[in-house]
Design a protein that fits this description.
The chain contains 17 helices and no strands. It is mainly α. It has one domain. The longest helix has 39 residues. The chain is globular.
């Protein structure tokens, strides 16, 4: 999209989504990958239980943010595939979309190998190649395809959660993701990263290979479904605010109910050692409901546009915001030119960093777009896609 005829709701949802993604990624910037699987194995936990503000901070990350904002971003990426590529019979726009996805993969490769293992751009580029084949379908058909796959995955994950109480403890722990994670292992990985830039980059490479292997296989079907679903929602008018108020109210009611379940289960799980399963598997059930929760978040933003107007410039610069989050956070935590805070901040302290980055990025987006048509990385991406240097200044345009 250019500087005119933008859909303000899309920008607002995208802005909130990219800022929300930082909340979950902050742990991966500041601790080894295993810490994301089991925050209760962080060294500040006592007998597998985080205390005080750390428990609250970890609960907020898991209950309110984990998977929800990544889901939102996947939905919106499906929209962007349609906005750039048009209908499937539009061959010129289809070629442009292919170039755009190709350059996105290049950005992702550099981002993941040179800076941070948690890159998601490669996954988006790879999955986008398949999603672009679907863009000629009607909105209804896209909803059926994307919704059916998503519903099947929700059913599978929720079923596993409901079965966890009758599973052998070691199998249930494996499904929760914390079976092999130990505090000693996390601390050993912290020491490796702190030993020098070379060791940090080697650890990053190993984690990147694991993440990309999972992304291109296990995660791809879910991301494909979400992108198709997002494209369908766009075609039927969801992001334009064109559906009936009853539909938006129903989406919000279902999503907030799911959020309440996840919030309760995550809090209960956080009060004891994770292997005890105090929520009887309902924490995994709540995790499976990230999509309806994300749709409720989007519906709230769409129906309260004035309240989220501040997020629109951030959404217009989402690519720049995402990449500069990495530049800021890796500088803080393990790059040689930064203070090297890796492995030192618990979940509560991380919230201070997150809030500070949010303020900086919101202000930067508002100020930058007063003078320029796109964010700096958006401009580079667009210029590469077009094969020529585009005019960035608003005055020149």
């Amino acid at each position: 999209m250019g500087t005119v005829n933008r859909i303000s709701n899309l920008d607002a949802v995208r802005g909130v989504a990219v800022l929300g993604i930082l909340v979950v990624n902050a742990l991966a910037y500041s601790w080894p990958m295993d810490a994301m699987l089991a925050m209760q194995k962080l060294p500040m936990a006592v007998d597998g239980v985080l205390q005080g503000n750390d428990r609250i901070g970890a609960w907020a990350i898991e209950a309110l943010f984990a998977d929800k904002f990544r889901t939102l971003f996947c939905l919106l990426f499906g929209v962007s595939i349609y906005l750039v590529g048009g209908e499937r019979n539009d061959r010129e726009r289809g070629k442009k979309l292919l170039r755009r996805l190709g350059w996105l993969a290049v950005f992702g490769l550099i981002h993941g190998l040179a800076f941070w293992f948690g890159d998601i751009l490669m996954l988006y580029a790879w999955t986008g190649l398949f999603v672009m084949l679907m863009r000629g379908l009607s909105g209804k058909m896209l909803l059926i395809v994307g919704g059916s796959i998503t519903a099947a995955l929700i059913f599978l994950q929720a079923s596993l959660g409901l079965l966890m109480p009758v599973m052998p403890p070691e199998i249930a722990a494996a499904f929760e993701g914390h079976a092999e994670v130990t505090t000693a292992g996390i601390l050993a990985d912290v020491v490796k990263v702190q030993s020098g830039y070379g060791a940090a980059m080697l650890a990053n490479l190993v984690s990147w290979a694991i993440v990309q292997g999972m992304s291109l296989t296990i995660m791809a079907p879910a991301v494909f479904a979400l992108m198709v679903l997002g494209m369908g929602l766009f075609k039927v008018g969801f992001f334009h605010g064109q559906l009936s108020n009853k539909i938006y109210a129903a989406i919000i009611a279902v999503g907030l109910s799911a959020l309440a379940l996840k919030g309760w289960a995550a809090w209960v799980e956080g009060g004891v050692a994770p292997e005890l399963l105090p929520s009887r598997g309902m924490n995994m059930v709540g995790s499976s409901l990230a999509v309806p929760i994300s749709l409720a978040y989007a519906a709230i933003i769409i129906k309260l546009p004035a309240l989220f107007a501040w997020a629109r410039p951030v959404g217009q610069m989402a690519f720049t915001t995402y990449l500069t989050q990495t530049l800021i956070m890796t500088t803080l935590f393990y790059m040689p030119w930064g203070p090297k805070l890796y492995g030192q901040m618990g979940p509560a302290a991380l919230w201070g960093v997150i809030a500070s980055v949010w303020v900086v990025q919101i202000l930067f987006a508002h100020l930058w777009l007063k003078a320029y048509r796109w964010g700096p990385f958006e401009w580079v991406w667009r210029s590469l896609t077009e094969g020529r240097k585009l005019s960035l200044s608003r005055a020149a345009a």
